[in-house]
Amino acid sequence: MIPFHVAVHSLDWKPEMTAFPNLLGVGGQSVSSPAYRWRGATRRDSPHILFQLTLEGCGVFMQGRRRYDVRPGFGFLCQSHNPGISYHYPRGGGAPWTFLYLCFVGRSAMAMAEDLVRQHGPIYALDTSDALISRMKGYADFAPEGSLVSSVADGADLVVTLLHKLLISAQPASRGKKTPPPPPQKPLPPPRNPPGAPPQPRTPH
Question: What are the distances in angstroms from CA 144 to CA 2, 42, 48, 77?
């Protein structure tokens, strides 16, 4: 499965839809050298939001002077060209760092991600057995040639699902707790016919 990178192309995307989440790519990689290093201040690609989740091993994410060891089940969320961020394979690391990543743009979606980081920081827990992770891994099978033509709706669904899960994981009350199901609702009584109206036919079950 790893390594892979799938560039996503949305044929129905239009310039008027710049607020919508636009999925750029999904991939996975395994690195074991300190030569793997990205700095927001020196990137030359186009700005985007990146979420990178560790599956095995450990990577390092830096925001300003703060260092985060990104272990399995944790990932970082960032704006790719933020000059205060960088991430790399740790010097002296013993095992490969294996991870999945997802990149997207879209004015509103990027603002949502940046709001998340401002409010809750850059590091988020995400169960590596979650259906979302299986869905990301599935891109390797959908597009083994490295390119996938999709719709804006499909890409937006993946991005919004990710942001929703990250927001849930950031809530203190949700850590280690299951949300109780809503109480059952009583069925509404059937509507009454107004005086003089013919009786309504019964709907077969």
Answer: 11, 30, 24, 26
Q: Which tokens in the block code for residue 172?
A: 């203190």
For the sheet with 59-63, list strands across it: 37-39, 85-88, 59-63, 66-70
pLDDT, mean of residues 53-76: 97
Task: Please state, in angstroms and as integers, the Cα–Cα distance from residue 89 to each residue in 9, 66, 73, 74, following that order.
Answer: 30, 16, 17, 15
pTM of the model: 0.82
- Spatial CA neighbour of 95 closest among 65, 146, 54: 54
Instruction: Say how many C-beta atoms besides its own lie within 10 A of residue 53's C-beta.
Output: 26
- At residue 48, the pLDDT reads 97
Tokens 């979650």 sit at which residue?
A: 130
- Structural Rg of the chain based on CA atoms: 22
Query: How far apart (Å, rounded) are the C-alpha atoms in residues 185 and 187?
Result: 6
* Backbone dihedral angles phi then psi of residue 159, each to the nearest 5 degrees: -65, -45
Instruction: Identify whether the C-beta of residue 90 lies closer than 8 Å to the C-beta of residue 32.
Output: no
